[in-house]
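Q: Can I see a sequence and its folded structure?
A: Here is a first one.
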Amino acid sequence: MRRRLRRGYGGLVTASQYPRLIATDLDGTLVRSDGTVSERTRSAVLAAQHAGSVFVMVTARPPRWLHDLSYLVGDHGIAIVANGAILYDVLRRKAIRTRLIDPAVALDVAQAIRTAIPDVQFAIERPDRYGQEPVYLNRWPKPDDTLVAAVEELLSEPAAKLLVRHPSLPSDELLALVTPLVGQRVTASHSGGHGLVEISASGVSKAAMLADFAAEQGISAAETIAFGDSVNDLPMLAWAGTSYGVANAHPEVLAVVDKVCPANDEDGVAAVLEELLQPLK
């Protein structure tokens, strides 16, 4: 387990140690609870990019939910989406690299989950399409081209994520039930949404795709800082040289991060970036 460092949230980094790579989760971390990115956060991100850092969003969101944030991606234009299943060019709206769940594996996993937890509902995210069962409780407006079908049809093609929703169980409890059912065949996690578990292909995580992206930029983990708030962020936070949890983060995150910064609604990511930039002014 990491040793938590509570001596502020930025002062241990000097100008010579300014991060070459800044990786951040979005919802619950960079994005406020009302779904907005504050002007303070926008300015801090752009200032960090101007100072020479590579900034990358690393999120559970599907590709289509990144287009409104294209002003944050920087010159490289890339975001890591679907919990690391897709390396996505936001500006060209094109998947560059995917790590998808094999349909046979996904269907076997879905059947095992439904047998043990009959009330679950399933949806899927493909790189270019969303689909759901007719009974799935979608908390967001569905895209016009949504595939509404039985789980067998939803999983007839490789998926970036299999979404498992339960109408009453909290995400932590649902994940605890799902994890032993799926074993090592897939990766199960959650991003904080109530009653929702997200399943990716085995070995897929935010950390795995971020490590590949960083290597392609010639950047090491030691030169990276990462921000997160939920269980699906844990591998990324463990990989980065310096990890930050926002004050509103899941208890598992707060237990292992190097530093704790203000909550998402208090622009915690911006506060850290502003402090890190001070020696450079």
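Q: Show me another, different protein.
A: A second, unrelated one:
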Amino acid sequence: MSVVEFGGSGPGILLLHGLMSRASTWWTVAQWLKPHGRVVGLDARGHGRNPRRGPFRTEDFVADAASAIERLDLGPAVVVGHSMGGLHAWALAALRPDLVRGVVAEDVVPDNRGRSVDEWRWYFEAWPAPFRSLAHVRTVVDVPRVEELFEERADGWHLIAELDDLYEIAAEWGERSYWDFVDAIRCPLLVVEAGRGALPAGQMAEVVRRCAARGLTAHHVVVPESGHVVHDEAPEVYRGAVEAFLSGSIPPV
């Protein structure tokens, strides 16, 4: 298990990053989350400094998150996830409701069936191998905090995650619906949607509608100006939504 202890005390807050990312990219978010509890970020298997490579089923990631909550005595925790991490947060809340007291899911949908990694594999295969410097990385890879996703080796700069692992992880999403997890959630939920994201329309609103229909506290916030990584591209809007959710929707431990 590879975690980042960001600080804070009290109720646990577990941060789950997206595909290709790592726990340390949550640093800025973690600073304003610390007054709300003990903030811990988890490197997913195949990412960051986590030595575990596979298997990569959603349930394997969920088991890792559950183990982190139990071993670090974080539960019941608020689980905050971006993209892949948001999917794993939904699944964790569904499969281990005893460990989760609230979920924040950022720009993720439960059904990507029919989509293939081949739609974006070409982009990664066009990268130079290796990059010559971090400046070189930044001219090609346009994602927030990109410098944290690469490491310097003897021959240059490489993505920390293995591309074959990323392809395997994402391939499952094109073959499987996750509505059953959404329908099993029993805790308060906030869904933050990127207005300039590229995910199928309407699904995030439907997640909240289904949860609210079961009597759950469920909120849907759309951020029109933001791309996929809302917590970095529209940080003040994201912070306002999350802090309001934590203050008004999550029962105290």
